[in-house]
Every structure is written in structure tokens, then in C-alpha cells.
Amino acid sequence: MGQMILQPRALQSIRKLRLSVTDRCNLRCRYCMAADRPPTLDRSELLSLEEMAHIARVLCRHLPIQSIKLTGGEPLVRHGLSDLVAELAAIPGSPEISMTTNGTLLRRFAADLKRNGLTRVNVSLDSLDAMRFADVTRGGNLAATLDGINAALENELRPVKLNAVLRRSSWQQDVPQLLLFAGALGLEIRFIELMRTGTERVWCDSEFVSAAEIQTWLTRQGARISLETHSTGSACLSSVHGEGISVRVGWITPRSHPFCASCDRIRMNARGHIFRCLMDGERIPIAELIRTTDETSALIATDQYLSSKKSPAAMVRADSMASIGG
Ligand code: SAM
Ligand code: SF4
């Protein structure tokens, strides 16, 4: 089974697949994970990387998927990740394979990942101040992430995009410093509005700042922001010019301007559950459906699940971001 091409509508709107390979992480970012709660998944519940690759192949055979992004938890703590990259890169149709990482282990793995077919990385970096970085990541070492960014550049995992979550208490320091850093190294940035997750909800609310507020401030400081007409499903793309630099910046605004209507992605967590939205607790157990029924039935059930997608009433997640993959 598997040669039949399915045409259900909801499935045919999906262009991007996010694969969360683990819910474990070597950092504990305040907005993502509880300080002390262990990861929720027992190792026995994790899909093997082979099964993950198999499901990705099934999805790519039937859906117009153009790109696969590896995420987590921290994807680089999952043993054998480079082998998974090689399996995904060999999928007919050659979807782009990228990864979102905190960068701390990139020095060790960048060359292998590149060799096996990874094209580029997003590296999460909220602050260039070592103390603020350690505070938001609960103990992370800024130098390790910066070294990971260098390793990505040296191994041509380009464009390297920084993911920076905006925080009320520090954006006036962090945003200009990140722009100058990105401009100097030729990196792109994604500024992400803070979403409320199951952990630290009160902190998330008090630290929220909208992208619009920052854009207004940058303009008042003399920066010029030119919006690109072409924007992706989730990011409003722009170029920010000023102080002799020019940086491509994507503004990700799930709270101030939800982009649900143009969303073209699905997510699979490390247990093989598909989620139609990061904020949606409902899921469909695609790995189990493929195992116990057949591909066509599994995909029809997935299409029905996607067709009943609702706009999240409020951006609140019951559990941690790391359990699905941000
Ligand atoms: N560990 C990897 C990393 O940090 O890049 C991949 C997983 S992480 C969950 C993916 C992205 O989600 C990161 O860029 C992180 O900053 C973002 N993220 C996590 N929790 C968030 C929240 N509450 N609001 C906005 N972005 C969040
Ligand atoms: Fe780990 Fe990434 Fe979550 Fe930070 S954002 S705790 S690095 S999974």
C-alpha cells in the first residue's frame, strides 16, 4: 500500500513539517520548560528515528511538503540525529531539511549534519549578555551558543537565522545588540513574541511585548524598516537598516497578529502524534494509525483532524513548548 495519491483538501495545504525528535533539553528556558519538572516522555514512548523517517516519507509521498524542520526539546541531544538527517535528505522530492537548535552542541555535530544533508539552522539566542542569557536559559553558557553559531557558519549551514524571543524587561538592550551582531556576521533574525505556555504563565504575561512596539521604537531611534511584500506563513519579513548595517528580520507575532489563516505547517511530536497547531491540545496518533491500519486510513483520519482546525481562542498551552516543539 502507499502508491495511491490522496487529494483531501486540508492535507494538500500543508507545505511544512516540523518533527520534534525529543522533549529533552540541556537548557531550561523560562518560557519553555519548568525548572524542575522532568521531561514527560519515558524513553520507551519515543518513536525510533527509523519510524520517524518512515512517517516523514509517507507524509511527503502524499502531501506537497517542501521543507522539514527538526526541533524538540533540543534536537541535538537525541542520539543518531545525523542519521535521521541523511534519511530525510534522501526522500524523493528533496524537501529542504533544517533544524532549530539552542546551538550548544553544534560545534560537535555541524560538520556531520552538513555532510548528511542538513541545509541550514535556526539558533535560539535571546541575549548577547552572558548574565541575561544565563538567566533566561536557567544556567546556559552564552559562549557555547556563540561557538555553535560559528560552527554553523564555518560549515555553510546558511542562512543562519537567530530566533530571539522578545521580553519586556530586556528588549531595549537585547534587540539593538542582536541586530548589530547579526549585521556584522550576515545572519538573519526572527523576533518572536512571547507565548504563554503551561510553565511560568504569569512570567510570560508580565514579559510580553508586541513586535509593533519594538518596530515603533526602532524607527524613532532612526532605523529604517522596509517590509517585504513576500512573507512566509508565520513571519512578516522585513529589512532593518541603520548604524551602517542591514539585517533581514522576520517578525513572528502569534499574539498580536495570529497567522492561523495562512498556516501551512503540521507538527509531529516525538511520540508520533500530529498537532495542527502549537497551541492545540488535540492531536492525532499518526504513528499508531499507520502501524495498526494502513497509510490511506491514517491519512484520511489526519485530513479530518486538520479540517476541523479552530482558531485558538487564546494563546495558552497546557503543557511545555518542548513537548511539541516550538
Ligand atoms: N531547543 C531548540 C531551540 O531552543 O531552538 C528547539 C526547540 S524550541 C521549543 C524552538 C523555539 O521555540 C525556540 O526558538 C524558542 O525560543 C521558541 N519558544 C519556546 N517557548 C516559547 C514561548 N513560550 N514563546 C515564544 N517562543 C518560544
Ligand atoms: Fe530547550 Fe529550546 Fe526549550 Fe530552551 S527553548 S528549554 S533550548 S527546548
The largest sheet is: 11 strands, mixed
Q: Beta-sheet strand percentage?
A: 15-25%
- For the termini, the CA-CA separation is 33 Å
Task: Indicate the percent of residues in helices.
Answer: 25-40%
Question: How large, in whole angstroms, is the Cα Rg?
Answer: 19 Å
Number of strands: 11
What would you call the structural class? Answer: alpha/beta
Query: H/E element string?
Result: HEHEHEHEHHEHEHHEEEEEHH
Strand order of the largest sheet: 7-8-9-6-5-4-3-2-1-10-11
* Overall outline: globular
| CATH homologous superfamily identity | Aldolase class I
pLDDT under 50 segments (min length 5)? 1-5
Total number of helices: 11
> How is the CATH topology named?
TIM Barrel
Query: What integer is the average pLDDT?
Result: 90
Domain count: 1
CATH architecture: Alpha-Beta Barrel
Small molecules (ligands, ions, cofactors) in the structure: S-adenosylmethionine, iron/sulfur cluster
CATH class: Alpha Beta
